[in-house]
Amino acid sequence: MTQPKLLVTAALPYANGQIHLGHLVEYIQTDIWVRYQRLNGRRCIYICADDTHGTAIMIRARQEGRSEVELIADMQKSHERDFAGFDISFDHYGSTNSEENRLLCNAIWQSLRDANLIVEDDVEQLFDPEAGTFLADRFVKGTCPSCKAPDQYGDNCSKCGATYSPTELIDPVSTLSGATPVVKTAKHLFVRLENLHSFLENWTQSGEHLQSEIANYLKGHFLGKPLRDWDISRPAPYFGFEIPDSPGNYWYVWFDAPIGYIASTWQWCKKNNENLDDWWKSDSTEIHHFIGKDITYFHTLFWPGVLHSAGFSLPQFVHIHGFLTVDGEKMAKRKGTQVQAATYLKHLDPAYLRYYYASKLGPRLDDIDLNLTEFANKVNSDLVGKVVNLASRTARFIESMGLAPEYPHDGGLFASAASAGEKIAQAYEQLDYARAMRLIMEIADQANAFVENSAPWTLKKDPTQQVRLQEVCTIVLNLFRQLCVYLAPVLPRLADQCGQLLQSPIQHWNDSQSPLVGTPVSKFEHLLQRLQPEKVQAMIEESKVETTPQAETSPSTEAVVAPQDSGDALAAEPLAPTCTIEDFTKVDLRVARIIKAEEVPEAKKLVKLTVSLGGDNTRTVFAGIKAAYTLEQLQGRLVVIVANLQPRQMKFGLSEGMVTAAGPGGTEVFLLGVDSGAVPGQRVH
RNA sequence: GGCGAUGUAGCUCAGUCGGUUAGAGCAACGGCUUCAUAAGCCGUGUGUCGGUGGUUCGAGUCCACUCAUCGCUACCA
Q1: How far is A4 from A489, CA to CA, in rounded Å?
Q2: Which of A70, A164, A251, A584 could disulfide-link A168, Cβ–Cβ 3.0 to 4.6 Å?
């Protein structure tokens, strides 16, 4: 009986943003697995697509003054270019905005209807009368109903952490138009997931389809109680597919996105004369999804539920990976660590990143860290210093002779490296690439030691030793080739180059098991340049300029170049409607000095500030700036506060004012200051 | 708060069923070498294995508690 063929997917990137190094962890991890399987002779297709629907796309297209279709076409082009630049070997890259996807959504929808899984319910949602659209949570801001913190998004409060519905917000404002949203009731359609509870319990807990941490997470979090109905419709206007039997309603983007996996496969089938059912409704295909841990829920509960109800094959395994940090911290545009794929490619070879990620990736969901110093060291030391150097230090010696006609005695080196192949293969199979890379580098170390002991450069000088010279080089080049086979899933270009050098292409994993003899050796050319650390720095610098030109907030940085401010910040939070001077004077802004900054131990985001308006006039203000400033940085500095804001009772005490700041929140909060000369108590006019 | 994880050498991490003096790579230091992309080889580690307590003849490995860090917390793409 033949092994099942493989259908592999990576998550569909959303068409609202560019691919960055964080995304690439997943596409590279998946690509390595796919290439490994193919090299082993396994039938394996790698399918992906752009995820194109939803409110965010609709709003963005509107802001850019063009159609959604135009926007997503541009974005798709750019995504495909980035992936190609990193040698991601998709068999097909489709789009969720395709006719195939619409037809599949219809069919799957009908199955859910037939299975009595669809129910209707009224949902109260905020509606923006000016923009004429319902507002997703992220497009509404207002005062938190729990702690009364102002300027909070519609789903949860960044200050007190409370979660609520946007309709509970006090004084809500649409971030699209600045209009006051009104509560509107609309009919929504839901999937009654609870009907599939026992199926999902079995599927997730079987131990065969998910990493154990994930199974535990689902069990503890969702499966212990009845599953909630899943709201999968959105009223018009919405960019997506209209629901055929519910005019005016559209499928929520998370309904049609995973179906895009099937639709994209279908497009591939049409191109290649294949039958879709052989891939999605057949025991002779194993489906493997690769995703990040942020979208676990959709892929391990909803998606299996939908597939099960609609009669499609379930994934054999959902492989979940962690996030990328850079130098130990979350990627941040401000620091230039959120590097776009295209920016990386301008400065560095994709092989570096593919190898570095491989050397860090294991089968678990730990986050992986891109340590920039280590990145440069590791790539240079392992790839250039150890692997490529083997060819570099021997190939030239036998350009005229070619490889020896018979494989010489090598003290068992080749045989032992060949037998390590099984362990390496197993590590790839189990997604333990870090282990695979360690095993491979052990072989490279042994090979380099052999070169050292055999001293081909000495043999070269002795005319009676030419046969031995050829033998030594034959051994070393065969070890090099073995390494290239083992590294081929990670470094496809190096494998090709090795094939050219030894005039025998690497086509199968088993090429590592028998040595090459008697072939000519091409003229040696450098296979991989050393990574220059300056280029890493240049990439980081460019990433800073590209994304946050307004980074020059600190006067200490000497800005030589005129800042190129992007429109991102304004687009993220459009201007509020016009207000009169009377409106403005209602707000009493005052200069104040922070005389005491205290930790609030139980609070995640708040610090307690005692501010002085001069004289004995002090007050207590709670500010959500814990992540952005240390207590020392706050102590003593002048800030601008809203002095006549109605005091709010917060969880940790009464807040008698508000400190003004710019920025989206979290670590990116920038307090307003005043030029020197201002004193506490002065009003801001 | 709940849940899931992590905490081993300066850095990044291995340590399979609990079993001899706890390992690797990188970095650092010393020596050798010069074929090679200033690459390579040899040598050098006094680590409270986060902490406390327990089980055991024996614990980095099992159990309890505790501290720290990270992530997730569904109508958000």
Answers
A1: 20
A2: A164
Alpha-carbon distances, residue A218 vs A210, A211, A215, A322 (angstroms): 10, 11, 5, 17
A210 CA to B8 C1' distance (Å): 28
Round and report the angstrom distance from CA (A455) to C1' (B33): 10
Q: What average pLDDT does the segment A210-226 reach?
A: 81
In this complex, the nucleotide whose C1' atom is nearest to the CA atom of residue A476 is: B35
pLDDT at A629: 73
pLDDT of residue A556: 28
* Measured distance CA(A318)–CA(A490) in Å, rounded: 21
pLDDT tens per residue across span A128-177? 887 777 877 767 777 766 666 667 666 665 555 555 667 777 778 887 77
- CB-based burial label for A640 (10 Å; 0-12, 13-18, 19+): buried
Tell me the DSSP string of A316-340.
SEEEEE--EEETTEE--GGGT-S-B
Instruction: Determine the distance between A11 (CA) and B4 (C1') in angstroms.
Output: 22
> How open is the CA angle A655-A656-A659, to the nearest 5 degrees?
85
ipTM over 0.90: no
pLDDT at A554: 30
The protein footprint on chain B, as nucleotides within 7 A of a CB, is 1-6, 11-14, 24-27, 34-37, 39-42, 70-77
- Using the C1' atom of nucleotide B34, identify the protein residue whose alpha carbon is closest: A457
State how far the Cα of A393 lies from the Cα of A459, in Å rounded to an integer: 13
